Amino acid sequence: MKNRNYLILGNLMAIVFGLIFLMLTSESSASGYYEYFDPISWIIIVVPLISLYLIAFPDINQFSNIKIMLYKMKWIQDMVIYLGIMGLFLGLSFLWGSIFSVGLESIHYTPVAILSSSLGIAFITIIYSVTISFSFYVLAFFIKGKDDIPSINLGKRIFVHITAFIVNVIVFILASVIGSTGSGISILSSIGLFNEYILLLLFGVLVFFHFQSNSSIAMLLKNLFCDFEESNDSIKGQLQAIFNTKRFVMGLCLIALIFIPTALFRMLSYVISDSTQIFNILIGGSQLLLWGFIIIVMLTTLEGKYNYKLFQYDGSIIEDRMFLPKFVALPTILYLLMVVLLFILSNVLF
Predict the structure, then answer these.
(1) How far apart are CA 88 and CA 82, in angstroms?
(2) How far apart are CA 299 and CA 113, in angstroms?
(3) 167 pLDDT exceeds 90?
(4) Which candidate, 97, 119, 99, places its Cα nearest to that of 275?
(5) What Rg, from alpha-carbon coordinates, does the chain have?
(6) Count: domains in the chain
(7) 286-310 confidence digits (pLDDT tens)
(8) How far is it, in rounded angstroms, from Cα 187 to Cα 185?
(9) Confidence check: pLDDT of 152 > 70
(10) How crowded is the C-beta side of 150, counted as CA atoms within 13 Å?
(11) pLDDT in tens, 316-328
């Protein structure tokens, strides 16, 4: 079966799994099926997934060796999770900015209602990403292929890369515009595009990657927009630099999150006039995590491309299997626990 058929089948399986769990959940709750339908969340995940796949792997219309095919299934599972978490933090960045800028008192609903509704919509992105990731995990058990399928050189594919990159940018802008319209605040202030700390993060990532052994920022960026040959040593060096940089980024995000509880308890030691001020401490952390996962998504795309090149050279694949459970799950769970804590405090103490 060709690779594009696996992508289609995986998404169809995700719809089936989603409908099953939706019926199980809705039978025992007052909410209807429509509460789980959010086309924007689906677009944020599926459209970038396909476009990033086109950048990373040139064989979407071909048959693949079973080893590289299994790797691509694992790559898709991880990428979907990263895209879902990125969409979550994009939505939360607008939510916290809206609450702090406008104030819950200016909204005609109760604080519990507006927070519950907004958080429910934000978590739909995670539901979609986990369901799609699980569908590809199940699909990987049924992959059958051969070990002697030759690769086909399709050239530099400049048009495909540029088109896929533009599609990703359009999807991000579309989601940001919708978030800005719903929250009533500007896009730039919500996502922190010109925030000096976000710019410092981007600069620090570039410096860190530059000083990795046998790495090149120019070659890394060039791979986003075309395919070209590199030496075996260069590919391995770039892969190791990508692994180290991804851990560096999530390490910075984790450290930033650790400072939030300290700021929270220091804030509680003063008299706070309204509960909206308590959510201000989440704005910076949400923006940092948003851009952290944008970097992770781009580096994971290039990681897939370099592993595909490495497989063409010597049939080997280099993976960082512990990155998601150790460096992604921990900061994300910590952040969500703090959101729950702040949600409780905002309704109990104020």
Answers:
(1) 10
(2) 38
(3) yes
(4) 99
(5) 21
(6) 1
(7) 888 999 999 999 999 999 999 999 9
(8) 7
(9) no
(10) 3
(11) 999 998 899 889 9
Determine the structural domain holding residue 342 and report its residue range.
3-348
Q: Are 62 and 152 in contact (CB under 8 A)?
A: yes
CB 221 within 8 A of CB 295: no
User: In residues, how long is the chain?
Assistant: 350
CA separation for the pair 277, 104 (Å, rounded): 10
What pLDDT score was predicted for residue 106? 47
Query: What distance in Å separates the CA atoms of residue 55 and residue 166, rounded to the nearest whole number?
Result: 12
Place of tokens 């959510």: 279
Q: Three-state DSSP class for 56? A: helix
Using one digit for the tens of pLDDT, what is the confidence trace for 179-197?
Answer: 777 666 777 777 887 888 8
DSSP 269-320: TS--SSGGGGGHHHHHHHHHHHHHHHHHHHHHHHHHHHHHHHHHHHS-----
Q: 81 vs 1, 42, 51, 78, CA distance in Å?
A: 25, 13, 16, 5
Does 121 have pLDDT greater than 70?
A: no
Q: Which two tokens stand for residue 252?
A: 């910075």
Q: What are phi and psi of 65, to 5 degrees?
A: -60, 145
Question: What integer pLDDT is reported at residue 123 of this predicted model?
Answer: 79
Q: Provide the whole-model pTM.
A: 0.90
266 or 294: which leads in pLDDT: 294
Write out the two tokens for 163. 């088109």
Give me the torsion for CA of 282, 206, 71, 59, rounded to 10°: 120
d(CA 75, CA 346): 39
> What tokens were used for 43?
């677009």
* Dihedral over Cα of 330, 333, 339, 344: its sign: negative
Cα–Cα dist 55/337, whole Å: 35
The encoded tokens of residue 286 equal 């949400």
